[in-house]
Protein: Phage late control D family protein
Organism: Pseudomonas veronii
Amino acid sequence: MAQGFTPIVEFYGANAALLNQRLMHWSHTDAAGLESDRLELTLNIEGLEGLPSLSGKIGLRVGYQESGLVEKGEFVITQRTPVLFPMRLLIVATAAPFSASDASGYRQRRSASYGPITLGALFRQMVSRHGYSPRVAPALEGIAIAHIDQSNESDMAFITRLAKRYGAVTKPINELYVLAEAGQVKSLSGQQLPDVTLSVTEDNRPGDQAFITAKLDETSRAKYQGSRVTWWDAAAGKQRVVQVGVAPFKTLRQRCQNEAEARAVAEGELRRVGREDLKLQIDCPGNPLLSAEGLLLLDDTWPSYMQGRWSITKVTHVGDPVTGYRSSVTAGGLSA
């Protein structure tokens, strides 16, 4: 998708006319895991009689006049904050199932035990009761779980912990809930998005519309080349160890029920630390194709140590009359 020069933001659904006519500033945060996708808006309410009553779902599309709009999903308004002099209304909206009412009990703490069961079946069971259509990556579908406990934690927290245990990620996207390997969320949801390529211009200067700045952090906690997980051999009455990769090993505290489960957990952890040993932060011109769990490709205009594919963990898109349309990206390195 070619970038344009004239940013456009468009709302549809409930209150669309008011939002489109009165919008002054917007910010959309697209995140993975427990953090809710979040939309923050500032409206000019000068001349309006009373405070607007805002309810229902609002949809967001963002892009450029020259290249078209990209669908960013639907949100439910959870907070309104009126400000006087000047007359402004600050709005916060979140992507379901993160709404304040939480009608299905997604954030309600509960305790339960599961197993024997597969990862795919358990994920489907968890998200279906909240009205979502589950999508599971084939590589994760059949992973066997002998036993696992949900201990005084919400379904939201349990689903995220379950995915992390096997080196996977989860994401609600409108009516779908996806369990996938890093970088595969969008393809599972039916949104076939290519890698987003970023290039640095030769005259990369602050104040220029195409200006890009970046910071690379390397974390010492992720200097592992292998992972080690224990499991209980009931037949032999002893604890055994599964090792994946090479030394130095990261030893996980959890103990698994059998060798297959231990190996799946170890392989998932190795994939995770491989991605997270490097953390990249980029501020760039607004790009509506940048999204959490998507893939970012830095071409040969970047320094050699930054070039290649990255897994995006969080993106904040901002539209403002002063700064224009900008995107802030947090991404982790891919192990492969």
